Amino acid sequence: PRPLITSSLTGTVCSGYPYSYTITSNVASSTFTWSRATVTGITPSTGSGSTAGISETLTNSTGSSIDVTYILTPTGPGPLHCSGTASSLVVTVKPTPSVTTGLTQSLCNGTTASLTITDTPDVPGTTFTYPAPTCTGGMTGGLARSSGSSAPITDLLNNPTTSPQTATYAVTPTSPLGCVGGVRNVVITINPIPTVNSTASKTICNNTSVSYTPTSAVVGTTFTWTTSILTPPTDGTITGYSDCTSACPSSINQTLQNTGTSTGVVRFIITPTGPTPTFCVGPTFTFDVTVNPV
Predict the structure, then answer these.
(1) CA nearest to 9, candidates 72, 77, 101
(2) How far is CA 41 from CA 61, 70, 106, 129, 261, in A?
(3) What is the pTM of this model?
(4) pLDDT per residue over 49-93, tens digit each?
(5) In which element (H, E) is residue 89 found?
(6) Are the beta carbons of 204 and 287 closer than 8 angstroms?
(7) Residue 40, C-beta contacts closer than 8 angstroms, at least 6 positions apart
(8) Which of 215, 266, 273 is nearest to 245 (CA)?
């Protein structure tokens, strides 16, 4: 008799997962050949063999399912080796989502995260899970997501240090068709809020430079300031002070003149700003300069 294919002629597999299939026939000791043609979006581009077993790992580079057709041809045993009727095996290769590479976010401490997780290729309906993030510097506030969701990461992370710290989320994507992608890291960096830690007051002689360098424990902090007379001297005023609201020098070197007969006080309101990329603005700091008269 001429052999016929008796194994199922449909199959499914997730992209990037091994697909195994065994060809069977109604005629014992039949042999088989198989082949598949090029299908756009599928790699490897073609395949063929002369065994009863098909074992391939097909990759679907799109966000939708693609059907791949194998042509199965049976041949009966000797001595006649009767050629059987070819059959088509249709395997649906479902897309497997992959978390987009390089997903990061930088925030100022005390700011709620809002990092949207995406997948490439975009497989509609993909959800994401992850354990609690791995945090540096004793940072807290990172939560696990055990139930799949497409919502952004909205953790409120707390950085207790004066340097940037990271929360690394090991994210696993799962498509609505049940295909699970590989784990990929998503990183949120929390930058500290700078504060001024230099002295809060100073007394200088008349017609003398303030010579004051504001400092912060956060490396790379810059400073701006506004000024005003807090306490005017008797029978006079103080001159020589001015605001600096951008591109300020690292030190306040203004020379102050007291034209009165008693001490006067100039107040500098200093604002610290952290370094790039977030330029976190810290609380204002009051620095009072007492200027003695001549």
Answers:
(1) 72
(2) 5, 16, 35, 27, 87
(3) 0.91
(4) 999 999 999 999 999 999 999 999 999 999 999 999 999 999 999
(5) strand 87-94
(6) no
(7) 66
(8) 273
CA-to-CA separations, 256 to 188, 233, 235, 246, 263, in angstroms, rounded: 46, 13, 16, 21, 12
pLDDT tens by residue, 164-196 = 999 999 999 999 999 999 999 999 999 999 999
Q: Which residues fall within 8 angstroms of residue 80, CB to CB, at 6 or more apart?
A: none
Of the pLDDT bands very low, low, confident and very high (cuts 50, 70, 90), residue 241 is very high
pLDDT above 90 (res 163): yes
Q: How far apart are CA 115 and CA 105, in angstroms?
A: 7
Please give the Cα distance from 3 to 78 (Å, whole number).
12
